[in-house]
Amino acid sequence: MHGRGNTIGLRLRELIYDLQDFYLLSFRGSLGIVSKPFYFKDTIEQMDYAGAGSFLIIVLISLFVGMALSLQLSAELSTLGLKMYTGKVVGISIIRELGPVVVAVVYAGRVGSGIASELGSMVLGHQVDTLRVFGVDPTKKLVTPRIVSALLMVPVLTIIGDAVSLLGGYYIAVNVGHQSGTFYWSSIREVLNFENVFTGILKPFVFGYLIACICCFMGLSARGGSVGMRQSTTRAVVFSMIFIVITDFVLTRALLYILGFSI
User: Fold this and answer.
1) Cα end-to-end span (Å), the chain
2) Which of 6, 31, 41, 137 is most buried (CB neighbours < 10 A)?
3) pLDDT tens digits for range 77-102
4) 220 with 81: CB under 8 angstroms?
5) CB-CB contact of 173 with 71 (8 Å)
6) Strands (DSSP E) along the chain, which ranges?
7) Are 169 and 94 in contact (CB under 8 A)?
């Protein structure tokens, strides 16, 4: 029992140290956005990798998410005689919840894993130590560009994904559900109010920041050769997805209260 207690205490202490290092890395990486030097080239490269490289997969997944949602809602609402509300429900679901979460999860799986594996290989290859030898701050050089890229690209990809999902929902509602396309788009315009749009734009910024910070921390924490890099990459994606879902719930609850929605 005494040995087990020591093990638990040691793990708890390691967890506290890891959280401390994570918060420090996130703070210093964020501070680098407004302090010199500015690594514009690195930032553009990361934006190209994260944005242009994720465009097709975001479009493909968002299209089928919108089509599947519209198909399911059309079937369920038609039994209640409420098929005309398909566009409104699809619009609210996509803009407020599904759009930001789906894009963030895809971003974490594709870009986040790449960040963790790239930084992990740099740590194991002693490239990060080389930067320190030459007087370059690794956090400023490696973490800040990836945070900036995520803050810009995740919202942009979310807007694109939302638009494609709504188009997919329109196709199903008109061609399968035999609804009026004009009424569908008028329903979409009704849900494009300040509350829904604000919620749909705020979440991607938070998700992007979390993904970038978590994946950078996991990558820079890689130890133990190829096995350690595999573990750090896996942890980066898993923790990113967990915190995306948890943060989505917290933000949804807080925004519903702030914006005055009654439950």
Assistant:
1) 48
2) 137
3) 877 777 788 888 889 999 999 999 99
4) no
5) no
6) none
7) yes
